[in-house]
Design brief:
This protein is mainly alpha-helical and 75 residues long. The protein is built from 3 helices and no strands. The radius of gyration is 12 Å and the shape is globular. The protein starts with 9 loop residues before the first helix and ends in an 18-residue tail after the last helix.
Length: 75
């Protein structure tokens, strides 16, 4: 099963995040304890891999449409 935005519906993305983080996770919570704004994935704005890569690198991007990939990408 693909988890890419292009291969999933919004409802499927919500279920993917809920299943990964547990039933107690609040979809309305922006970054909660994970430090990752999974709402961007649910809304179809950023792939999970990109969000996780940014979290690992300590990057916070306010405007995802302008972001670059990778820890050393020109932000």
């Amino acid at each position: 099963m693909s988890i890419l935005i292009k291969d999933t519906t919004r409802e499927e993305r919500e279920a993917i995040v809920r299943n990964a983080l547990g039933d107690g996770w609040d979809i309305g919570c922006d970054t909660c304890s994970t430090g990752v704004d999974y709402q961007l994935y649910i809304d179809g704005k950023k792939e999970l891999a990109e969000l996780n890569r940014e979290a690992k690198c300590g990057i916070v991007v306010a405007h995802p449409e302008e972001s670059q990939s990778g820890c050393l990408g020109g932000m």
